[in-house]
Amino acid sequence: MKADLIIYNAGQLITCASGGKPKRGAEMADIGVIEDGSVAVAGGKIVGAGRSQDIARQFEAETIIDAGGKVVTPGFVDCHTHIVYAGDRLKEFELKIKGADYLEILANGGGIISTVKYTREADLEELVEQSRNRLNKMLACGTTTAEIKTGYGLDTATEMKMLAAIAELDKIHVIDIVPTFLAAHAVPPEYKDNADEYVDLICGEMLPKAWDWYVASHFFAQNTPFFADVFCEKNAFDLAQSERILRTAKALWFGVKAHVDEFNNLGGSRLGIEMGAVSIDHLDAISDEEIELLAQSDTVGIITPTVNFNFGSSEFADARKLIDSGCAIAVSTDFNPGSAPCPSIPNAMVIACRYQKVLPAEAMNAATINAAFAIGLGDRVGSIEIGKQADILIVDTKDYRQIAYEFGGNLVDKVFKNGTELPFAK
Ligand code: NIG
Ligand code: FE
User: Fold this and answer.
1) Atom of ligand 1 nearest to the CA of 337
2) Is the same domain home to 416 and 368?
3) Do 391 and 350 fall within a single domain?
4) CA 256 remoteness from chain centre
5) Among the atoms of ligand 1, which is closest to the Cα of residue 338?
6) Which ligand has its closest atom nearest to the C-alpha of 307?
7) pLDDT < 70 positions in the chain
8) 114 and 251 share a domain?
9) Judgement on whether residues 70 and 87 belong to the same structural domain of the protein
């Protein structure tokens, strides 16, 4: 059979093949390794994956790339980011080193709110330019698909500006993007003492407007999903407010996600699971009962180890318990200026392995196939399986465990997006 590209001689071909569903519990330790593997690509899609001798027998291709015995993996999927923003939080970084608390900073008009001020002032071009730079860093670390949230506007005009920036980034950047509407990221200063009124605005104006925008956008035309999200947390949105927002979003046909249990358990995990959220994210304070519910649901649990690491915390979400209880877990960078200034999925894997007792194989599935399901793209990306987009990495190691072991550098050697090798300066 004719193919456009064959990548052969992968010492380990890591397929993360899952047969159309996220991996949960013990399945997360299986990454579908094929020793001496090859991948065949045609029309930007994977048409074959298997032992090199079998692929060589089945396919011929114009472009043939020798992986040199290195590890070949699916491109990483970063399922939770906030990379569209202006300004920085470097002063806050120093305050936190000196002992200031994240939620207290937020309550005093700093934190997310300080990024909101800069983001409101920035024009669309500036936002796109700064965010493009962040996407470049993510790509260099092997991310080929990313979710991006709004949430630094907190007024209708700026939230719509953020959506416009996200759409523009998807058009100009090779990374595929899934948009998430997070007007419920924090209560803006204008509504400081009246959060319910801001929730009225979100439900009555912002969500409907965002949905109309989506339906007219290229995302809708290309069948990319659109999610609504809420930060269910003390000093952000309580359970009743979160429920109102997510119910309104769902009635408009948004998929739903929720930031839950980052610091305090307000019941957000149960709410998200009961509402059929595609993911619930953070999970530091999730209860045993909610872990059981998560294990029995289709919702993916997203862990964000970079956040705890960046806070200098020694406490992390109990990913070991989540996996051992049968949950499907994904890992993200949560790349954002306040809690996780990290573009690198491998770095998030490194922290998850050390501090959350996640095994390298589990971290690999968490960063690929499960992350794809956590943003509604499990049928398109996240694994090396026939029919999937040919988003593939050649990683400069002979053993995949090195990806979750070595830190501070970058092992990604080559990135293929839809079967095309990207020009790539390491
Ligand atoms: O996922 N917790 C809420 N949102 C982000 C932080 C955003 C920020 O601090 O700017 C998070 O950690
Ligand atoms: Fe977040």
Assistant:
1) 10
2) no
3) no
4) 14
5) 9
6) 1
7) 425-426
8) yes
9) no
The owner of tokens 């249990």 is 261
Task: Summarize pLDDT for 238-278 with one digit per residue, the tens.
Answer: 999 999 999 999 999 999 999 999 999 999 999 999 999 99
- Residue 351 is which amino acid? I
Which residue's structure tokens are 């960046």?
310
Cα of 264 from ligand 1 centre, angstroms: 14
DSSP 333: -
Q: Helix H segments across 173-222?
A: 195-201, 207-216, 218-221
d(CA 344, CA 351): 11
For residues 393 and 364, membership in a common domain is answered with: no
Shared domain for 136 and 68, answered yes or no, is no
Task: Quote the CA–CA distance of 397 and 159 in Å, as a whole number.
Answer: 42
Residues 152 and 37 in one domain: no
* pLDDT tens string 354-378: 999 999 999 999 999 999 999 999 9
Q: Both tokens of residue 351? A: 């922290």
Q: Which ligand is nearest to the Cα of residue 112, counting in written order?
A: 1
Phi/psi of residue 7, each to 5°? -105, 120
Indicate the top mutation candidate among 79, 147, 339, 342 to test ligand 1's pocket, ranked by most ligand atoms within 8 A of CB. 339
d(CA 183, CA 298) in angstroms, rounded, equals 25
Of the candidates 165, 228, 239, 232, the residue with the CA atom closest to the CA atom of residue 202:
228
Instruction: Identify the CATH number of the domain in which residue 147 sits.
Output: 3.20.20.140
* 81 within a domain of the structure (yes/no): yes
Number of domains in the chain: 2
The boundaries of the domain holding residue 358 are: 76-373
Q: Is residue 426 part of a domain?
A: no
